[in-house]
Amino acid sequence: MLEVRAKERLRNNDTGDDSQGTVGLIMAYVDDVNILLHHDDVEFFLDTFNKLATPLGGVLNVTKTRIMTSTSNKSLVDIMLASPDENIVRTGESLDRAITAYSKKLEDGQLVKEEIVTGLRVLGAPLATNPSATTLSHLP
Questions:
Q1: pLDDT (tens digit, 9 = 90+) per residue, 91-103?
Q2: Neighbours of 80 (CB within 10 A)
Q3: Separation in Å, CA 60 to CA 20, 91, 103
Q4: FRET label pair with 7: which of 25, 44, 65, 135, CA 20 to 30 Å apart?
């Protein structure tokens, strides 16, 4: 499904960051899964995963799921929602829905959405800008 979406973007002259329409990449080790996706695919992928996994007993743990949109300490969602381009705004809305539904942290006894903008660990290795990577203790 992700490959079909990437091909559709390519047909619409959106070559993405890989010149192939931004093909999704899934890396996993036992129960630690990392997925690199085009912004337009995040909500679709997580909704589809939930729909397919739930009947099989698969559970997406929203308190361990993290959606990183940038490593610049700036919310990409906020930037997209403020765009004059309707397509970018729609993508920002989709990302915000995905973060609200699937990327949560416990704060003052409440689950609140968490957009990661500083970096994170991928299979134990930091994925961050150089300044962020120097203080690995803050990365989820």
A1: 999 999 999 999 9
A2: 21
A3: 29, 22, 10
A4: 65
